[in-house]
């Protein structure tokens, strides 16, 4: 069967997103309804509220998608949905919707690992981009989001070796917790990024985590605790007046901690093609430092545009259509999983 267009659904966390993607990675349309305002009073994502909101948002979003793309169901060849890892209640909304559409319209459908989708995001392109990224396998990829900080050797489609991962907090989680402690609100990463633009990144000394440890693992809880202690040691006035310096110093420590590992892996593997992906790769300082690093070392660096760095269904659609093209699909028994499946990724010691 030929697969030209896939309809994709992403509801693994708090963003509801739907998209229609072509097999070559062209995004016909990708819609995202975020829930920042409903979670804001709680200073973080409340799973129950997230899944309820997905149920409210998903059908209107699908109607809008079909209307805006002018595609009839006979032009949609399959359905892809994030089935893992994520919040079970949230995943369930996307999966039940995908299964129902697959049954009603008699289409094959496939469950996708959210991290695999992030890894493949640089293959997406759309009308706003002048050209495709030109990325080819193999490459080294750093996936950095609110729930994950992982370094992969991406050998080929479906062949991903996990080189390192965070042993505690994810980088995005550290950004969010730091921002919350400083009173910047939720979601924190983008606010820290914005504040840091007016700050001095050398104003405060914070630890660069695990830079001397073996391997490629990350850790952010030590940095987070040091930053919290620093904030607590300041008076109310200084906290407010030095907010930009605090943000810049914290952001610099996260960026350097990420870059130390990325640099070590690129050299260790002799890999000169590098991808940054996931919500934290939207960070402007990280993009700048990574671009300078790549240029200095003659590495090819690929970072998806912001709209495909944060959670979106287009990346799920791309992973889905590639797998459907290989003859893979799921049955109506597909269930959500909070974690990866054993076959999703390999690890050096397995
Ligand atoms: O990939 P993503 O949208 O959702 C998850 O799968 O987690 O990533 C969300 C994370 C949040 O922690 C958010 O604070 C962080 O990405 N983030 C940023 C920026 N934009 C989003 N962190 C730092 N700087 C940013 N500009
Ligand atoms: Zn994500």
Q: Which properties best describe this structure?
A:
single chain, 350 residues, alpha/beta, Nucleotidyltransferase, domain 5, 2 domains, 5-stranded mixed β-sheet, 12 helices, 10 strands, 17% strand, globular, binds 5'-O-[(R)-(carboxyoxy)(hydroxy)phosphoryl]adenosine, binds zinc ion
What does this structure look like?
The protein has 350 residues and is of the alpha/beta class. The chain has 2 domains: 5-129 and 311-325, Nucleotidyltransferase, domain 5 (2-Layer Sandwich), CATH 3.30.420.40; 139-304, 2-Layer Sandwich (Nucleotidyltransferase, domain 5), CATH 3.30.420.40. It has 12 helices and 10 strands. A 5-stranded mixed beta sheet has the order 3-2-1-4-5, with helices on both faces. It has a 5-stranded mixed beta sheet with strand order 8-7-6-9-10, with helices on both faces. Helix 2 (47-69) runs parallel beside helix 3, helix 5 (171-181) packs parallel to helix 7 (221-233) and helix 5 (171-181) packs antiparallel against helix 9 (243-269). The model has no long low-confidence stretch (mean pLDDT 94). The structure holds 5'-O-[(R)-(carboxyoxy)(hydroxy)phosphoryl]adenosine and zinc ion (ZN). Zinc ion (ZN) binds next to helix 4.
């Amino acid at each position: 069967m030929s697969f030209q267009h896939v309809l994709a659904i992403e509801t693994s966390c708090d963003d509801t997103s739907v998209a229609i993607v072509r097999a070559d990675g062209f995004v016909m349309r990708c819609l995202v309804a975020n829930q920042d305002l409903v979670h804001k009073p709680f200073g973080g994502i409340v799973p129950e509220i997230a899944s309820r909101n997905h149920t409210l948002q998903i059908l209107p979003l699908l109607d809008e998608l079909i209307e805006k793309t002018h595609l009839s169901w006979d032009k949609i060849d399959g359905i892809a949905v994030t089935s893992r890892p994520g919040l079970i209640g949230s995943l369930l909304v996307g999966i039940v919707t995908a299964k129902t559409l697959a049954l009603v319209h008699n289409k094959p459908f496939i469950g996708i690992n959210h991290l695999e989708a992030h890894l493949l995001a640089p293959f997406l392109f759309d009308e706003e981009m002048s050209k495709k990224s030109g990325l080819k396998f193999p490459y080294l990829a750093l996936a950095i989001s609110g729930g994950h900080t992982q370094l992969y050797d991406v050998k080929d489609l479906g062949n991903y070796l996990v080189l390192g991962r965070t042993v505690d907090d994810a980088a995005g989680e550290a950004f969010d917790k730091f921002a919350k402690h400083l009173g910047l609100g939720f979601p924190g990463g983008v606010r820290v990024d914005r504040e840091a633009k007016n700050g001095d990144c050398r104003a405060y000394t914070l630890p660069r985590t695990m830079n001397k440890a073996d391997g490629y693992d990350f850790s952010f809880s030590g940095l987070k605790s040091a930053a919290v202690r620093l904030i607590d040691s300041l008076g109310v006035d200084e906290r407010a007046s030095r907010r930009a310096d605090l943000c810049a110093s914290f952001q610099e420590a996260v960026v350097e901690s990420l870059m130390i590992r990325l640099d070590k892996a690129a050299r260790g593997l002799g890999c000169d093609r590098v991808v940054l992906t996931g919500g934290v790769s939207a960070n402007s300082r990280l993009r700048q430092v990574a671009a300078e690093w790549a240029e200095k070392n003659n590495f090819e660096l690929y970072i998806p545009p912001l709209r495909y760095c944060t959670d979106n269904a287009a990346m799920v659609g791309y992973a889905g259509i590639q797998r459907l093209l290989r003859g893979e699909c799921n049955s109506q028994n597909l269930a959500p999983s909070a974690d990866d499946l054993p076959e999703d990724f390999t690890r050096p010691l397995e």
